[in-house]
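Exam prep: given the inputs below (a chain plus DOR), describe the expected output before reading on.
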Amino acid sequence: MDAFHGRFYISGEFREKYVVVDRGIIREVKSEMSGMDVKNIPGHIFPGGIDMHVHFRDPGETEKEDFRTGSLSAIFGGTTTVCDMPNNKIPIDNRQSFESKLSEIRNRSFVDFGLYQAASGVTIPEAVGQKIFLGKSTGGLLTELDDCEWQDKVKVVHAELQECIDNNNKESKDLVSHDMNRPLECELEAIEYIFKYNLANTHIAHLTSSRSLELAKSLGFTTEVTPHHLLLNNSSPIGSFGKVNPPLRKKSVQEELLNILNSKSLDVIASDHAPHTAAEKEVFKDSPSGMPGVETRVPLILSLFKKGLIQIERTVSTLMEKPAEICRINKGFIAEGYDADFISVDLKNVTEIMGDELHSKCGWTPFEKFEGIFPDLVYLRGEMMIQEGEVISSPSGAFLNAKKQ
Ligand code: DOR
Ligand code: ZN
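Solution:
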C-alpha cells in the first residue's frame, strides 16, 4: 500500500487529501491520515490524461512512430492512457491482425492502452471500440456499414462522407484548396448519414466546426474535437504540415469552435495523433494527411485554462473523465476504485513548445512556439513514471479490455 498527499482534483475542485493506493488502485481518499509513510506530491494533481484517438503506426509503419515512442510522447505530455486506431498497414479488422498487433506491441508501452478494431463483419470482444470510416483517409479504409457486426461499445466515426468527397475532390495544393476539396458539408452530411443507422454509443471524431458539433450532439452522439482544429486554421503559416483530414477550416470557423469549449455539447478533446515524417510532409500534393499531437494535447489545453478560456471542470471532463466513460475504462477520476493515474502540474510553469524536444519519432509539431504547461510528475497505477524530465520506469503500460456493461 502507498499513500499520497497533495492537492487533488476531486469533484470540481482541488482539495488537500490523502489518497491510499493498493496494487495500483485507489482504495481510499481521506482528509486525515496517520500510521503510514506518506509521499507528498507538489502542485495541482489531475487525473492522468486519456487520449481516445491516436495512431501509433505499430506494426507496419514504425519509421513514423512505434508504440514505444508514441507512448513516451504520451506520458511526457501527461497522458497515461491511449486508445489506438486500427488503420495500420495491415488493417485491424479481424482477429488475426488484432492478435498479432497486440503481441507485437505488448511490452513496448509506457502508458495503458486500448486498441480499436475497424468495424467489419467480425467482432473482437477485446477491442475497446469499433472505428467507422465514412470517407477514405490515410490508409484508405472505407466501412461497409451494411456488412458490419456491432458490439455494445463505442463506435468512433470518421465523419466525412465519401460520396461528397468524390464530388469535390481535386488535387490539394494548399490548405485552402484542401479545405475546399473536403468541405464542411461532407462532415455535416456524414453526421446525418450515420444517424440513419441508429447505432448505440456513436461518437463523432474530430469535429471541425461549432455547427457540426451542435448537430452531432442534437442527434444524441458524443462529440470530439482536436487541439489542431481548435488552434489552427487554413491560413496558419504551416503549409503542407497542416494537411489533415478533416481539413483545417477558415479562421472564423476555428474561432467559433474555440468559443464553445465551455459548452456541454463538447464531450472530448482527443489529439488524433497521426505522425508522418517531416520528409513525407514537405510537398503539399504528396503530403500524407495527419499531424502529431499526443504530447501537446494536455499542455495546450492547460495553457488555455490558465488564460481563462476553459473552465477547470471542462478541462478535466474533456481530457480525462469523458474519454474514460465513453471507452468504459476505470480511469479519469481520483476516487475510490479507479486506477491511481495522476499528473502533477505547476500552473506557473508555462513553456514554449518545441518540436525537437518532444518524444514522437516524427520530430516535428504543428504547435511550434505555442504555449504549453507540461506535467512535472506522472504516475501510472501508483508508479512514478516521469520525474525531472526523465522517464524513470520500464514500459509497464497494460492492455485494457473494455469494461463489460
Ligand atoms: O489526417 C488524418 N490522418 N486523418 C485520418 O483520418 C487518419 C490520419 C492518419 O492515420 O494519418
Ligand atoms: Zn484519426
